[in-house]
Structure formats: C-alpha cells, structure tokens
Amino acid sequence: MNTALVGPAPVDTESVDMAPVDSESVDTAPVDTQRGGSRRRFGRLGEEAAAAWYRHSGYAVLAANWRCPEGEIDLIVSAAGTVAFVEVKARTTGRYGTGAEAVDWRKQQKVRSVARHWLAQQDQHYPDLRFDVVDVDGRGTLQVHTGCF
User: Fold this and answer.
1) Helix, strand, or coil (residue 53)
2) pTM of this prediction?
C-alpha cells in the first residue's frame, strides 16, 4: 500500500501504460501541448484511457463527464457493489506537480458535492462509495490511486 498524495487515507496505487487495454480502440498517444496540441484533447484521451483501464479491471462505467450545477465528475464506475467517483488529472509535464497533487481539499469537496447530487438521482442505494484519482503523465502512463479521500 502507498500513501495517497491527496489525502491521509491509505490507498492502493497501480501504475500502468496508457495503451488501450480492451477491444475499444483509444488513441492514447501523448499530445504535445507546447506545439499546438490541445490540452483539452490530452485530458479527454486521459479520461478515455482511465475508463478503458476500469473496464479492463472489471468495472462498469456508469457515467462519464457527469454534470450538475455543482460541477462535473470525470468517471463514475462500479464493481462488486462499490461505486467509485473518479477524478482524472492529465499533465504533460511535472512542472507544477503531479495531477494527483492537484486534487486539493477544494477539489475533493467539489467532487463530494457532485457525487451527492448523482447519488440523489439514483433509484438504487449504494452503500459502498470510494473516491479515486487517476494521474496521467505526458509519457502516457496512468497511476490509479484508489480510495484517496
């Protein structure tokens, strides 16, 4: 077990290459944001790769880019009775820290608030909840931090 960069709770961390992991083709080549590439596109590719990783790991993707007046959650996934709300942070460089380090207490509060809105709209009760952070770096590597906050 590793300690989360974003919270005091112990978390499981797994580092994986951003290559597609299932039959759905995901273009995950790193995007050069310094020379005309799109940060938004790199972020979207990171979210797609994270979703592919979760699917490959046996999770169902319940929602992607779910929005409400409070904000947005990148992914909502479920497996074995647990729902995980996932924040994906894609960073092309480590100049300003890792993506996981960017999920500060303010961002955590926002994700929790949006998660409450999503849960309130569901017909089903989910007793086991978790908040994950997926960190995508410029080399196309995913670090999946489970149970961060």
Assistant:
1) helix
2) 0.77
Cα(122)–Cα(147) distance, integer angstroms: 22
The span from the CA of 36 to the CA of 80, in Å, is 42
Please tell me the total number of residues recorded for the chain in this structure.
149
* Residue-level pLDDT at 27: 38
- How far apart are the C-alpha atoms of 58 and 21, rounded to whole Å? 12
Can you tell me the distance from the alpha carbon of 13 to that of 133, in angstroms, rounded to the nearest whole number? 10
Sign of the C-alpha dihedral computed for residues 119, 123, 128 and 130 taken in this order: negative
> Using one digit for the tens of pLDDT, what is the confidence trace for 126-137?
999 999 999 999
DSSP-derived secondary structure for 84-145: EEEEEEE-S-STT--TGGG--HHHHHHHHHHHHHHHHT-SS---EEEEEEEEE-TTSEEEEE
Q: How far apart are CA 38 and CA 143, in angstroms?
A: 21
pLDDT tens profile 66-92: 999 999 999 999 999 999 999 999 988
